[in-house]
Design brief:
7 helices; four-stranded antiparallel sheet; disordered N terminus; five-stranded mixed sheet; 2 domains; Nuclear Transport Factor 2, Chain: A; 41% helix; alpha+beta; Glutaredoxin; 239 residues
Length: 239
């Protein structure tokens, strides 16, 4: 009897898995039938019954099984855990393996032994980047790969080139972001900035600062020093 029950349980489990897959496939088919231009990358169930997350065109949207209704620019919040599930999922879905970042196009800031690592894309004129740098100054034992990412206008591009062409890029960067002292070097040297911008556009890096940790997780926007520490610790454990 026990064998029979085990077989029945396995069959039911297989059927449930098939149904779950079919439901997600149904959502994708229904959505692409109505919006053929949408490039659906993944469909997954959410904790809410009958609601699915759809990752498409670099955006997270929510819909029902028939794709009759769409929730766009919406955040799904877990009220018990006080957690923004949409933000967490986006950080995972847009992750980039640390080794896939073009680290040779960045310059390094090494603090202490530099055993921990993070990379970020920043604009010289970005106010949030300046705040992030202030908090980053409180973090020790980290190697920071800085991608100069001038997306805020022509002045940002001029400063970016000047920083890259400076004899001491770290000092020029810190002077601009921490001391509001503009770089003075002639920005006429060969820079990787166009390659960085091309990589950023390809990977939907649309704001600064945007951070990447060694577990691949992407964090858009400035975070305080304690959260930087938490993310460095979590990334080290996830490796």
């Amino acid at each position: 009897m026990q064998k029979v029950m085990t077989v029945v349980a396995l069959v039911l489990l297989a059927c449930a898995s098939t149904m779950a897959g079919a439901s997600e496939a149904t959502v994708k088919v229904a959505l692409q039938k109505k919006y053929p231009d949408i490039m659906v990358e993944s469909v997954n169930k959410t904790p809410m019954a009958g609601i699915y997350e759809v990752f498409a065109n670099g955006q997270l949207i929510y819909t029902d099984e028939k794709a009759a209704y769409l929730f766009i620019n919406a955040s799904l919040i877990d009220t018990d855990k006080k957690m923004n599930l949409t933000e967490e999922r986006m950080n995972r879905l847009t992750a980039i393996k640390f080794g896939d970042l073009p680290l040779d196009l960045a310059f390094k800031k090494v603090k202490g032994k530099g055993t921990r690592k993070l990379a970020y894309f920043g604009d010289p004129n970005c106010g949030f980047c300046k705040k992030f740098e202030q908090d980053l100054a409180k973090v020790d034992d980290v190697t920071v790969y800085v991608f100069v990412y001038p997306i805020l206008g022509p002045d940002s591009m001029e400063k970016a080139k000047s920083i890259w062409c400076s004899k001491d890029r770290v000092k020029a960067w810190d002077d601009q972001l921490l001391n509001n002292t503009a770089p003075t070097a002639q920005g006429t040297c060969n820079t990787p900035i166009e390659k960085i911008l091309a990589f950023g556009r390809q990977r939907n890096i649309s704001g600064t600062p945007t951070m990447f940790f060694v577990d691949g997780v992407r964090i858009p926007g400035a975070i305080p020093a304690d959260q930087i520490e938490q993310r460095l610790a979590a990334a080290a454990q996830a490796k």
